[in-house]
Amino acid sequence: MKKKWLVFGALVVISLVSIGALAGAAESGTPFKDVPAGYWATSAIQSAVSKGYVAGYPDGTFKPDREVSRAEFVKMLADALDLLRSRGGSPWYQPYAAALLDEGVLVESDFSDYQAPISRLEIMRLVSRGLARDERYGEYLEAFSGLYNGDLPYVDYRELEEADVPYAALAIGSGILGGYPDVTMGLSKRATRAEAVVMIERLRGLKSKAPEAFQALRELKEVAETGTNATTVSSLIPEINLKEEDAIMVTPNYSLKIKRYYVMPLEGDVVSIYERKFLWDRNDVPAHLFNQARGYVAVVTDLTPAKDGNQEFFRLNTYVNPGGNTFYYDVPRQKFGFIHPWPSEHIIVNKDVTYEVVFYGRYSNDNFYVALQSNSAISGGVYSLLFNPDKRKASESS
User: Parallel, antiparallel, or unpaired for β 254-265 and 382-387?
Assistant: First the structure.
């Protein structure tokens, strides 16, 4: 099933629209002559203008593609959140910044040059803190401190600093912000007025929605608290909580630590947010690689070689059981930059350098357990990760 990757963002400038200009633009189907009825952000722009936290220009335009400054976004966000603020102040944006600072939505270290264009990453911080004022979402933001940047399935995840991972997770997981078609977060991209309006409208719309309504948030929270998304997307039962117990395997050639194990169902209506990262596009994966599996499991490890070598260190003697036959399907590896045991080209690894190595497994009704194991382990030779209760049900009904 093909999935659409939506693009979200957010920003806006504040100015005045004259009644005459509005009348002159009426034929466009919107209050602004440069925002046609079929424009992707028309509905959000109309809603934002009606609520009064953004306006157009005296010439009857909205300038939806114009970049937004930090000051302009600060004003818009403070108004959209209905924050109390003092009148007056210099510079003009000071009362709005002060209101956001008082609420903890803005932090002094966020930025100092308010006239510069605001980036998508800066917006993630602000809207996530704004959303976290709702205690329900605040609990999620706090939980997301247990994530690392690789838990966000976007190819530019390495650009995300540890301190910003929770903000990105909440903004993306709640749908306020989405990725681009190239599966990047676009952290350094500057946002436009149209993007700003869409983002703010989505933020406001979350007042009536519980975080549990978003599968992405639930997956991210489970990963943050346990190291797996298993119970959110499947009936599989986790056997180990990686936040409470270290899973370390030592062999003569390397040591590895299990960092995550993500479940990606291939049947039913649930599509994990991690399918894109580890399978890329199920329609492009050769059919024989699925091995009649109900789903795949990606076991992510930090692997440190004890000597220089290559993937032969771990190609044959360490594996997930039941195995996921992803031999030579390299698209996810090439997109996201991790290693798996069966790359299409030779991989060189160096002593004492830690690499992120992914071992693929699968699950079906043929097996009770999914485990990572090594035939050459000195210690930690087998780690049972998942129990499949459906195997028992299938056995009892046969």
Answer: unpaired
- Residue 394's φ and ψ, nearest 5 degrees, are -65, -35
Three-state DSSP class for residue 355: strand
CA distance 223 to 276: 16
CA dihedral of 372, 377, 380, 385, whole degrees rounded to 10: 0
Distance CA 172, CA 380 (A): 36
**Is residue 256 within 8 Å of 381, Cβ to Cβ?**
no
Q: Which of 136, 149, 138, 139 is nearest to 105 (CA)?
A: 138
Residue 197 CA to residue 127 CA, distance in Å, equals: 12
Model pLDDT for residues 230-250, shown as the tens digit of each residue: 999 999 999 999 999 999 999
pLDDT-wise least confident of 151-155, 253-257, 281-285: 281-285
Q: Angle at the Cα of 186 (from 180 to 191), degrees rounded to 5?
A: 95
Q: How many CB atoms lie within 10 A of CB 274?
A: 21
Judge contact between 76 and 44, C-beta under 8 A.
no
CA distance 224 to 147: 5
Residue with tokens 């000597």: 307
Query: Quick one: which of 279, 306, 280, 305 has its CA closest to 293?
Result: 279
Segment holding 129, helix H or strand E: helix 120-131
**Strand-strand pairing, 295-305 and 309-310:** unpaired
DSSP structure string for 365-379: TT-SEEEEEETT-SB
Find out whether 104 and 152 touch, Cβ atoms under 8 Å.
Answer: no
Specify which residues 263 forms β-bridges with. Answer: 297
User: Which strand (E) or helix (H) includes residue 363?
Assistant: strand 355-363
Domain positions in the chain are 19-217, 227-397
Q: Do residues 64 and 194 lie in contact, with contact meaning Cβ atoms separated by under 8 Å?
A: yes
Instruction: Name, in order, each residue with C-beta under 8 angstroms of 282's C-beta and a sequence gap of 6 or more.
Output: 1, 266, 275
Task: Say whether pLDDT at 343 is over 70.
Answer: yes
Query: Which residues are registered as beta bridge partners of 360?
Result: 298
Element (H, E) at 80: helix 70-80
Select from 44, 2, 91 the least CA-distant residue to 279: 2
Amino acid of residue 171:
A
262 sits in which H/E element: strand 254-265
For the domain 227-397, what is the CATH code? 2.60.40
